[in-house]
Structures are given as structure tokens and as C-alpha cells.
Amino acid sequence: MELSFNREAMTEALQRIVGAAEKRLTMPILGNVRVRPDDTGGMRLETTDLELAWSAHAAGNIPAECDTTVSVRKLLDVVKAAPGESEIRASLDAERMSVGFGGSRFSLATLPGADFPDWEAGGIVAAVDVPQNRLRRLLEATMFSMAQQDVRYYLQGLLLVATGHTLRAVATDGHRLALAEIELDQAVDNRIERIVPRKAVAELKRNLTDDDQAVRIGFAEDQMVFELGSAILRSKVIEGRFPDYERVIPADLPATLVVEREVLKRALARVSIVASDKYRGVRMVLGPAGCQVMTHNADREEAQEAVEASYDGPEMEIGFNLGYLQDVLNVIETDSVRIGLRDGNSSILIQAEPPGGARYVVMPMRL
């Protein structure tokens, strides 16, 4: 059985879908890519780890009866090793795929395509189209606040909320919260919410471009479906009740600090030199003179920075996780940021200046 495909087209398709392949290989076939004919001509390539699945099209010649699987990472490495714009030929014989170009030949083990998990999404209850660049920005503005490891499994994902003409993304790890939203061209009839797992969010973001080509987002009963042209990402959703994030966002904050984003970023970067590796705490002292940031460590080393800022509240000291503040400043795009405060023991609200767009809540820490 003979196959042929272009190096560039196959490399692009395999690089898109490789992230869904299982690395631990609890089942050997989960480290493979399924190769079979596409309904529209060419090849259909599929990978999955049973929680997440990629499907992508690649141009090529493939027999109608072909249905096999081969290690996706090995096939990708072989294809990338071929000279640019090469036409690569492959043949299937018993339990092997032979791949060749120029004077190079590779023999890779295969498993039957019929044994590959067949996962199709169904029951789409709502779908919206979003430009890739806007969706990418939405993810970048929020995904850093997802929990890394937490027994509250629903925090290890990103909440997507579609309602009316708005698509909202919310992430929290219990100590900080990020909320951003974009406008939809078409309205969603009913409010719909799904928690997308961390790996699916990372895979989606990795494959989004900075152009305005549309992504179709499908909300199914227990899945999310993202269509990027001829490629489709499917993900199971996290079951559970996401925290009532709207109650977490503080309102009517009496004190306001307005500071240039880069100035504060550089100040935090400098004091981080002596910050404790374990606690990463920084103290902000606010008063008529503006803002000072300071930190110390177990060796009694200290760092202090005076930050030029506008502050209109009472004198106050408040401590934060240094990394949490830096993460927010890295995703806000305006020259200045506005920080709303109540007292030294309450959460703060960070926004762009002038206010608008994403909102970030950071809880204080005792130092």
C-alpha cells in the first residue's frame, strides 16, 4: 500500500496535532497518529489522549482502504528531517510503515487504525465565530490564573461564558482571579458556561494565529469543539461548579493608585533579586509620597524601590505575592494601570488605565 505527501504540508499538520498525543503511553496507541483518507480528499490525521483530540487535514495521496496508526513524534521527526519541499513516499506492509526520501529510509512500527479511539463530538447546543487574534488575546489575558495543582479540579481550567453578544473567560486559583471578555458578532440565545481543561486551553492558544481568520467555538453538553479551518480540536469539559466569580470582584474601592505599568514592572523586577524564593512576598507602602515597594528574605537582605505614582487614599501597607502582580502587568497592554484598594487586608482590583477590558483581583498576603 503506497502513500505520498508533501514535507511542508505534513509537518504543519503533525505539529498542530502532536500535543494531544499521550506522552506517558498508558496505552501505546495513544502515542500514535491515525492516518486515513479524508472525506474531502487527502489525509485525515488524528491524535488523542482520551481527554483531548486533534483532527487535521494534510494534502497527499492515500489509498481508500488505508487506516493505520504510527508514532506521531517519530513520524514528525522523520518528516522534518527531509529536505525542504520534498515529496515523501511511504508504504505499509504488515505491521510497518516505511518512509523514504533521497537516500534515507525509515521503518516505523504501526498499530491498526480500527483500534484507535473513535471520538466524535455531538449535541452542539450553541456555536459562535470569533477571530483568532481576539480569541488568542482573551486566553492570554486570563489563562495564567488557572490553578496548577488543586484538589478543586474545577479550578484547573478556564471558564468560558457565552451570553448575548459577549464571550467571557474567567480563571482563578483561589488567590487571584482574571476576567476578560470580547464582543461577539452574533448573539447567543441563552447563557451557556463550560469549564475547559488546562491542557485544552494551552493547545488552543498554541495553535491560534494573530490574524482575523475565524474560529468556530461549539458548546456541546460534555465537550467543547474548536474548528480552525480544516483542523478540529475537541475537549471534554470539567464537571463541577465554578466559583461565583462576580461576588469576588470588589466594588466601591475608596483608594486608587495609578502608576505607569513599565515603571512598576521594573521596580518589581529589581526587588525580586532578594525576594524569598519560597514566599515571593513584596510589601507596598502607599501614602502622600506615592508608592514604595520593598521585600526581604531569610538572610535579612532587603530591597526597596520608590515608585512614582498617583495615590488618592489613606496611608496603607499591603503585601502581595510578587509573581501575581508581575503576571498581571505582563498581560495588560496600556501604558498605565489603575489599582483599587480598600485596606491592607482586602483584595485589590487591577485594571488598565483608563479602566476597561480585563479585570484582575489579587488577594493580599501577610508578610
TrEMBL record:
Q: Does the keyword DNA-binding apply?
A: yes
SMART domains the UniProt entry points to: POL3Bc
**Where is the DNA polymerase III beta sliding clamp C-terminal domain positioned along the sequence?**
247-366
Lipid metabolism found in the keyword field: no
What top-level branch of life does the organism fall under?
A: Bacteria
Its keywords, alphabetically, are: Cytoplasm, DNA replication, DNA-binding, DNA-directed DNA polymerase, Nucleotidyltransferase, Transferase
Q: Which GO terms describe its cellular component?
A: cytoplasm; DNA polymerase III complex
Residues in domain DNA polymerase III beta sliding clamp central? 130-244
DNA polymerase III beta sliding clamp N-terminal domain location: 1-118
Q: Which GO terms describe its molecular function?
A: 3'-5' exonuclease activity; DNA binding; DNA-directed DNA polymerase activity
Give the record's GO biological process terms.
Answer: DNA strand elongation involved in DNA replication
User: Pfam families, alphabetically?
Assistant: DNA_pol3_beta, DNA_pol3_beta_2, DNA_pol3_beta_3
Question: What subcellular compartments does it reside in?
Answer: Cytoplasm
> Where does the UniProt entry say this protein principally localizes?
cytoplasm
* Family stated for the protein in its record: Belongs to the beta sliding clamp family.
Quaternary state and interactors: Forms a ring-shaped head-to-tail homodimer around DNA.
Q: What role is this protein assigned? A: Confers DNA tethering and processivity to DNA polymerases and other proteins. Acts as a clamp, forming a ring around DNA (a reaction catalyzed by the clamp-loading complex) which diffuses in an ATP-independent manner freely and bidirectionally along dsDNA. Initially characterized for its ability to contact the catalytic subunit of DNA polymerase III (Pol III), a complex, multichain enzyme responsible for most of the replicative synthesis in bacteria; Pol III exhibits 3'-5' exonuclease proofreading activity.
Q: PANTHER family of this UniProt entry?
A: BETA SLIDING CLAMP (PTHR30478:SF0), DNA POLYMERASE III SUBUNIT BETA (PTHR30478)
Tell me the protein's name. Beta sliding clamp
Classification lineage: Bacteria, Pseudomonadati, Pseudomonadota, Gammaproteobacteria, Chromatiales
